[in-house]
């Protein structure tokens, strides 16, 4: 029988070793009322900006928000963005951070420009080097990760394909974890699932799963049919496919299939739900939950993330019990999907901008984090 209270209490205090691609997310908000005279481009009058920890760092923050402890290992450059991330992570309660510096690459940084009056994501600028880390940096990452396995209850690999989780790093971590008897959860990015061979469970979204299996993956049945070959290729025990508003489907190696439908809520933005699922799943499995219990636990905070955002909170939840923390938790949110922008130019060259915010656009009162790219 599924016991939400018992699993929630067991999750509290579990330690997750999280390894993945760290990013600095910046959001620039302003008003747009005219077209530049220099080019047919909107001009944004900047009013405010926000800086957030993104990428795999968002997973670490979700783990801590759910009452767990996170040992986070990531990669940054020798630059100002790396320093900002180092200082921001140092302030996060419940996260022990180990960052490897690589002078040959910039810290991954994404700046989004948002029109506040239209809730419209207008433009994103990226600073990144998505190439795999060099051999020497790979070794530094491996040397930072392996000694900390003994202090973790479970391992979570958050792959954004920005260079941290190379084939060599993945192989060393999974092999060492299996030898130590630790489960490994992978939120994959590569369509070649074989590089994650030996992980316990993979958590691709529907698009990633469809690309990896070359299937439609448009229904519970089609996912269940394609999953066995994917699990054989990855040599994993289970495959959890997140499907946005359609819910989540878990297929296990013994042929079992469990589907949890999405809660019918007014959705503003479902991006970021994958990070939330991975964090909750890791803590639930570490706390001793079975597959069905872990899946239902993972779906609970995901529904909170996809629901209409709550008013901005002044800080972290302070509940003592895990179940209370789960009820009150408000996850960090990712950026909104871009709404449509149309430009109408009159004969004399003057223009105006009108933006139609999409139904999935996040409100400007929420705290955005990052998009998965």
Q: How would you describe this protein?
A:
- Helix 8 runs antiparallel to helix 9.
- It contains ten helices and 15 strands.
- Strand 2 and strand 3 form a beta hairpin.
- Strands 5-4-1-8-9-10-11-12-13 form a nine-stranded mixed β-sheet, sandwiched between helices. Strands 3-2-6-7 form a four-stranded mixed β-sheet.
- The chain has one domain: UDP-N-acetylmuramoyl-L-alanine:D-glutamate ligase (3-Layer(aba) Sandwich), CATH 3.40.1190.
- The protein is globular and about 65 Å long.
- The protein starts with a helix and ends in a 17-residue tail after the last strand.
- The protein has 373 residues and is α/β, with parallel strands linked by helices.
- Helix content is 30%, strand content 28%.
Key words describing this protein structure:
nine-stranded mixed sheet, alpha/beta, UDP-N-acetylmuramoyl-L-alanine:D-glutamate ligase, 15 strands, 373 residues
Brief account:
With 373 residues, this protein is an alpha/beta fold. The protein is built from 10 helices and 15 strands. The chain has helices at 4-11, 56-65, 80-90, 135-145, 167-179, 206-213, 220-234, 273-286, 291-306, 322-328; strands spanning 15-20, 22-35, 42-55, 69-77, 95-102, 109-115, 120-127, 154-158, 183-187, 201-202, 238-242, 248-252, 257-260, 340-345, 351-356.
